[in-house]
Every structure is written in C-alpha cells, then in structure tokens.
Amino acid sequence: MAKAQGQRTPFGERVRTWRRNLGLSQVELTALANHPDNPSPGQGSVSARTVWEIERRLTEEELRQANRTPTIRALAGAFGLSPDTPEYVEFLELAGIAAPDDAATYPEPEVPLFVTAGRETHLARLEAAIDRATGDKAGVMFVEAEAGGGKSSLVAHVCRRAVERHDRLVVLLGDCTGRAGAADPWQPFRQALCTLAGDTVSAGPRHVLSRRNAIRIASRAPIGIRALVDEAPRLIDHLVPIDVLRERARTGRLDAETVDRLDRVASAPPALTPLDPDQPIFRLLRRYAGAGPVILVLEDLHWADTGTVDTLFHLMRRLEKQRLPILVIVTYRPLDLESARLGDHDALRNLLTEAPKMFPDSLLDLAGTVGGAAGRAFVDAVVDRLMPDASRSFREILFAETAGLPLFVVTMLQSHLDDERAAPRNGAGVGLP
Predict the structure, then answer these.
(1) Are 186 and 166 in contact (CB under 8 A)?
(2) How far is the C-alpha of 380 from the C-alpha of 69, rounded, in Å?
(3) Sign for the pseudo-dihedral over CA of 54, 60, 64, 70
(4) Whole-angstrom Cα distance, residue 59 to residue 68?
(5) Which of 16, 188, 324, 394 could serve as a FRET partner for 58 with CA atoms 20 to 30 Å apart?
(6) Which residues pair with 175 in a beta bridge?
C-alpha cells in the first residue's frame, strides 16, 4: 500500500533503511540524508561538501570499513540528534555502532543455563511489571526464595529479555555481599549508580547482564553524569567516586559546562552534615529515566545495611503512584531474616510489611517452584537440555534427591556429566549418586 501523502515513515524504520544502505557511496548516502522524510528536514540537510569534509579526516583503514563510524556519528549530529538524547542512542544502535568507544568491545557475558519450566507464572508476573513500568507506571517487585532457589537466575533472565523487548530500557544492578554488621553502607546503590555513570568495566558481566545493556548504559552515561551534577551532587565521591566521573570526562563525551561543574563539585569543601541519599537518589533516577525506562535490581537484601533498607523504603514511598518508567526488583532469602546470626532485620521486615500497601501484588514467592509438579517439570526441562537421552529412572532419582531446587539440580547434573567424561569408555553408564 502506498504511503499517504504527508505521512512520515517512523524514525526507527528510516534508520534501518539507512543501515541497509551504509555500503553505498557517500554521494548516495548524502542523498538519503537529504530525503524529505528525514527528521527535522530544515536542520538535517547534509551537503556533498559536508560529507567530503567528514571523509577527508578519515584514515585509510576507516575508509575501508563498511560501517564508517565517524561519518555516521557526524550525520547523527547533522540530523539534529544531540548525544545526550535517546534518539541519538537509537540512531547509533540501529546503525550497528556502540555510541561510546569503551562499550564497542564489551564481550557478550556467558549466560547461565535457565529453563522456564515450573516458573512460567513467576516469569509472566515479572514481565507484566516491566511492561507496566515501560508504560510509565512505577513499580516494585520483591522476589523471595531460599539459597539456590533460582531467584537471581530468574531475575537476570527476565531482565535480559526486557532489554531485547523494550527499546531504550536499561538495567542497573547492585548487590549486598556482606554479613550482619559488615555490609558496605549503601552497597547496592553504590554499584548501580557507578554503572549509571558508565563504569561498566568495574561492574563486570554479572551486573551488566548483556552486551546490549552495556552499550545502552555507556551511551546514556552523559545523561546520568549530568543528572548527578544537577540533582545529586552530594552523592559524588560518596556513592559515586569522582575518579569514575573524571574518566568519563576524559572520553570527551561530556559538554564543557558539565565538566566545569563537575570540577567545582570535586573541589568544594566537605559538607558538615551527614550524607542523606534518600531524596538525591530519587531525583537522580527520575531524571535518568527521562531518557528511557529503568530497571533497578537490588540483590540479596537480607545482607543489607540499615542505610540501604531505609533508602529503599523512601524510594518506594516516592515512587508510589508515580507516572515514571522505573521498576525496582529486590531479591532476598526469607529464612535469613529470622536468623539470629545475621543480626537485627527489623527494618527490612517492616519494609516487607509496608510494601504490599504501596504496591499491591508486589511479592513473588518462589517456594512453590520447588517440589511437586513444578519441581518435577524443572528437573525434566534441565535434563532435556543437558542429557536428552537420560532414562526415566534417572530423572526420578534426580528429582527425589533435589526436589527440583535449581542449584542442586544443576550441580548434581554437572557433577554426573564430569564423571562420565572422566570415566573409561567401557559401554557402561555411570549412575547418579
């Protein structure tokens, strides 16, 4: 069907068309840039001379590349797409280019085995919460399971899928690794905010989740740093080290005003009042989410310090009934909240009591995925993936030994496979211990 007169082609479709034509000559690429369907035709016109000036600065190696990164970035600027806007990030991403150089070579992390069997309902509820958040309805979800119950793998899986399903969505992840009295103050927020500022290297593959998420994080880093300077300067060098921000500034991707304000914040005398991150973190996330949806994952909250729990509580209070594309996902072990050796968890217990009042249906309990039909379905699915020829009796033994607890199932299967690989080939299989 012919396009109606005056109807504009969606921006993403136009960029995909340009991507398919990146192998054309620069004169032809210029003609595409000057097409009347381009965004802001009055500002986005590119002459042959402009392209010639761009190409003149390229090395021979760059000229031989099919994707001419400097040219494409210059064209993005000529189209009126500012580097601190979501449209700029989308333009480069659809062109197959990572906006920041340090994300271009970020490896695709190894994805652990995950099967949905026995977890279909839980997966659907998390995805529904993400869909609501991308539709500007802020939310909070608490995922509870005992050690080895699969809460971290479930959350990581659903977040990777969300990054694939939703344009511009970014996942920020922090975790608590201390024990009672030893947790680093605000540790999960420290990790997540450093990632927000573009420090994907320190975060590591487990926190960044996927290469696509790493590229989006690094692409949006200038927005995050400007938001830090404008909305939450007290967090700089308290929760976000100044060296992380200076490293971003050295890449040349921050405007001169932001760099100047960053220098002034760094050189200011220390504040005399104690740090209270509650309001600044909310303002920072609200500003950051203006560039696209955000999922903030806080793992293993049963090891959190009181400051982290209090900050989460205040963040929830501020997100309640807000029209913001923000979802907070929290994981914890319920039995550890009752353990005397882990200290006083009154703050977290109170938070879990109040959460359903602010966010109905916000508790996702994975206890029902272990044992019964769900646990058996999980065992069968994992065996089908790793040992598709395993007998029914093998599966029965594995389920009887593990009840479908993910950590036990995968560990025992891996041990069994290792034993089989090490055993001499005499035609006899090795039984499951």
Answers:
(1) no
(2) 47
(3) negative
(4) 11
(5) 16
(6) 299
Residue 255's identity, in one-letter code, is D
Mean pLDDT of all residues belonging to the chain: 76
The two structure tokens encoding residue 274 = 């104690």
Find residue 299's DSSP bridge partners.
175
Q: What is the pLDDT of residues 34-64, one digit of tens each?
A: 544 444 433 444 455 555 555 555 555 554 4
Contacts 24+ apart (CB under 8 A), 226-230: 226/84, 226/254, 226/258, 227/283, 227/284, 227/287, 227/288, 228/193, 228/196, 228/197, 228/284, 229/258, 229/261, 229/262, 229/265, 230/287
Q: What is the pTM of this model?
A: 0.73
**297 token code pair:** 């994952």
Per the CB < 8 A criterion, the answer to whether 294 and 170 are in contact is yes
Q: How would you classify the pairing of strands 139-144 and 326-332?
A: parallel
CA dist 283 and 293 (Å) reads: 15
Residue 107 token pair: 């490896």
